[in-house]
Design a protein that fits this description.
The protein has 524 residues and is an all-alpha fold. Helix content is 76%, strand content 0%. Helix 8 runs antiparallel to helix 9 and helix 23 packs antiparallel against helix 24 (480-501).
C-alpha cells in the first residue's frame, strides 16, 4: 500500500519517552497503526500534561461519530472479502469461468489496491482528507456497480480493478482521518475500529451470501455485489456532517478553518480565554509536529529495498518478515476460498456452505474483540508466539483431516477439517491479526519509519496477491491438503523466526528497541 506509510511516519519527540510508560496498542488489517503513532497525531495528546481538557467531553460524541463513519472504509474491504467468497461460485457458474479466471477476479483487488494507496496518499495531501474520503467512496461504489451489472468476464474484471483502487484509497484515508481527528482518550477504541470494521464487513458479506443465495442465479450474485455499495453510501451521507482534519488544514495554511474545526470538536469556546489558550497550544503543536515529520525520514529507498545496506538491517528484516508472514499463513486466501474448502471437505449444499462461512466470520470477529483486551496485559511477543503455535497446529489439522477424508471418506474427518479451519481463524485473530502491524510500527525507528512501512506494506499485499492468485491452482494441481500443509510449514518457519528474533516491544521506547537490536542510537 505505498504511501499509507506516512500515517506511521512520526511520533512527537516529546511523546517518545512517554511511550515506555503507556504500552498501549492498535492495528489496521491491510494498513495498520500502532498507538504510539496515533498518539502523535491525536489532538489532545499535543497539549501540555497539566492542561484541563474537561471541556472536551461535550463534543466527544461528534468526534466518535465521525470516526465510526470513517471506519466504513475498512468495512468496504471486509464486505468484499466476505461477499466474494460466496458470489464467485455463482459467477463461475453463470459466466462458465475457469479456476484461473476465478483466481484473477479474486486477486486483482490486492494488486490494484497498491495503486489506490499511492493515489490516495497524493490526493489526501493535495485535496484534503474529507475530499479523499469522498473519492474513495465514489470509486468503490462505481466499481461495485460495474461488477453488479457486468455481462462477461472482462467487464467484471474492470469493475473489480476499479473496486481495488477504491479499497486502496480507503485503507489509507480511513485510519489517517481518524487518527488526526481523535483525542488521545479514544486511542484504544480508534485503533480497534479498523480491524473490527473489517471483521464486521466480512461477517456482513457472509450473511448477505446466505440471504441472497435463494434468488435466481444471475440475480443472486449481482445483488450480493451491489449490496457492497451500502457502506460507501453510508459514508457519503456521513461526509455531510464530518469535519475536515484540522491537522491537514494547518499543513496547508488554512488556520482560520482549522480554528473553527477545533472549536467544533471541543478545543475552544468563544469568550473563554483558557480554552482559547488550549486552542493556541494545539495549533502550535500541530505546526511543530508537521515540521518534525518533514525532517524525520532519512532512509533512502535503496536501503529500504535492500536492508542489508542499512545500519538498521536487523530491525528492517524482522519488520518485513512480520508483514509478509501475516499473509503467508494464508488468512485472506482462506477467507476468499472458504466455500471451496467446505465443498472439498464434502459439504455441497449451498446453504450449508454459507452457514460454514458465517461461522468463520463470527469466530474471527468475536476472537478479535476478545484479544483486544489482552494485548497490553499479555504483551505482543507472547500473543504472537501463542497465535503461531495455534496456527501451525490448526493448519496441520486441516491438512491431515483432508488426507484422512480422501483415504477413508470418513464424515468425521470431513467435519474435523472445518473444526480445525475455525481454530485456524481463531488462532490468527488472537495474535497475528490485531498485533502484526502494531509490532511493525513499534519496531521501526522514527528516522526510517516512512519508507520502511511502505516496503513492509508492499510485501504484505504482494504475498496476499500471490496466494489469492494461486490457491485454487495449487489445490487442483495437487490436493487441498497440500495447500494447508504448505501454509502450516510456512507458519512453523515463522514461529521459529519469531521465537529467536522477535523482541517484546510492550512498554519500551523506540530507542530501547533500536539499541537492543542494532547496537546503535537512532539517527537524529
Amino acid at each position: 500500500m505505498d504511501r499509507h506509510v506516512r500515517l506511521e511516519e512520526v511520533d512527537l519527540e516529546d511523546n517518545q519517552d512517554s511511550r515506555s510508560d503507556q504500552g498501549e496498542t492498535g492495528k489496521s488489517h491491510n494498513g495498520s497503526f500502532g498507538e504510539d503513532t496515533l498518539n502523535s497525531r491525536s489532538l489532545d495528546s499535543l497539549l501540555p500534561d497539566d492542561e484541563d481538557t474537561s471541556h472536551l467531553q461535550r463534543t466527544n460524541f461528534f468526534v466518535l461519530l465521525s470516526i465510526v463513519f470513517a471506519s466504513m472504509c475498512s468495512m468496504m474491504l471486509g464486505y468484499d472479502q466476505g461477499v466474494l467468497a460466496g458470489a464467485k461460485d455463482l459467477i463461475k457458474r453463470d459466466f462458465h469461468l475457469s479456476a484461473v479466471q476465478v483466481e484473477i477476479i479474486v486477486a486483482s483487488l490486492n494488486a490494484l489496491s497498491l495503486i489506490g494507496s499511492i493515489a490516495g496518499g497524493k490526493c489526501s495531501d493535495k485535496l484534503g482528507r474529507k475530499k479523499t474520503l469522498l473519492i474513495a467512496c465514489a470509486v468503490f461504489v462505481t466499481g461495485a456497480l460495474v461488477m453488479g451489472l457486468a455481462q462477461e468476464f472482462y467487464s467484471l474484471l474492470v469493475g473489480r480493478c476499479i473496486t481495488g483502487i477504491g479499497v486502496g484509497i480507503s485503507l489509507l484515508i480511513g485510519p489517517l482521518y481518524s487518527s488526526e481527528l481523535a483525542p488521545a482518550r479514544f486511542r484504544g477504541l480508534l485503533v480497534s475500529c479498523t480491524e473490527t470494521s473489517i471483521n464486521i464487513g466480512v461477517l456482513g458479506g457472509y450473511i448477505a451470501n446466505l440471504c441472497l443465495s435463494p434468488l435466481p442465479l444471475t440475480y443472486a450474485w449481482r445483488s450480493m455485489l451491489l449490496v457492497s455499495c451500502l457502506p460507501g453510501v453510508v459514508l457519503l451521507i456521513g461526509l455531510v456532517f464530518m469535519p475536515e482534519s484540522p491537522r491537514w488544514l494547518v499543513s496547508v495554511g488554512r488556520l482560520d478553518k482549522a480554528t473553527r474545526v477545533l472549536g467544533k470538536i471541543g478545543y475552544s469556546s468563544e469568550g473563554d480565554t483558557s480554552k482559547e489558550a488550549v486552542l493556541t497550544d494545539v495549533l502550535d503543536a500541530i505546526s511543530k509536529n508537521l515540521e518534525l515529520e518533514r525532517q524525520s525520514d532519512k532512509m533512502t529507498w535503496t536501503e529500504a529495498a535492500f536492508p542489508c545496506l542499512s545500519p538498521y538491517a536487523k530491525i528492517l528484516l524482522i519488520g518485513y518478515a512480520i508483514a509478509a508472514l501475516q499473509q503467508a499463513t494464508g488468512i485472506e486466501a482462506v477467507l476468499y476460498y472458504t466455500p471451496d474448502t467446505a465443498r472439498d471437505a464434502g459439504f455441497h449444499s449451498d446453504s450449508t456452505v454459507f452457514w460454514i462461512t458465517i461461522a468463520v466470520g463470527v469466530v474471527k470477529t468475536v476472537v478479535t474483540l476478545i484479544s483486544s483486551f489482552f494485548i497490553d496485559k499479555t504483551g505482543r511477543r507472547t500473543l504472537i508466539l501463542l497465535s503461531s503455535v495455534g496456527i501451525v497446529l490448526s493448519l496441520s489439522g486441516v491438512g491431515i483431516g483432508f488426507i484422512v477424508k480422501d483415504i477413508t471418506g470418513s464424515p468425521v474427518a470431513a467435519f474435523s477439517c472445518l473444526v480445525f479451519l475455525w481454530l485456524f481463524v481463531a488462532s490468527f485473530a488472537i495474535g497475528w491479526g490485531p498485533i502484526a502491524w502494531v509490532l511493525v510500527a513499534e519496531l521501526f525507528p522514527q528516522c526510517v519509519r516512512g519508507k520502511a512501512m511502505g516496503t513492509a506494506t508492499f510485501l504484505n499485499r504482494a504475498v496476499s496477491f500471490v496466494l489469492a492468485l494461486s490457491f485454487l491452482s495449487i489445490a487442483n494441481a495437487f490436493t487441498t491438503a497440500t495447500v494447508f500443509l504448505m501454509f502450516a510449514t510456512i507458519a512453523l518457519a515463522g514461529l521459529v523466526c519469531m521465537f529467536i528474533w522477535l523482541p517484546e516491544t510492550k512498554q519500551r521506547s523506540l530507542e530501547e528497541i533500536t539499541a537492543e537490536l542494532c547496537h546503535i542510537e537512532p539517527r537524529k
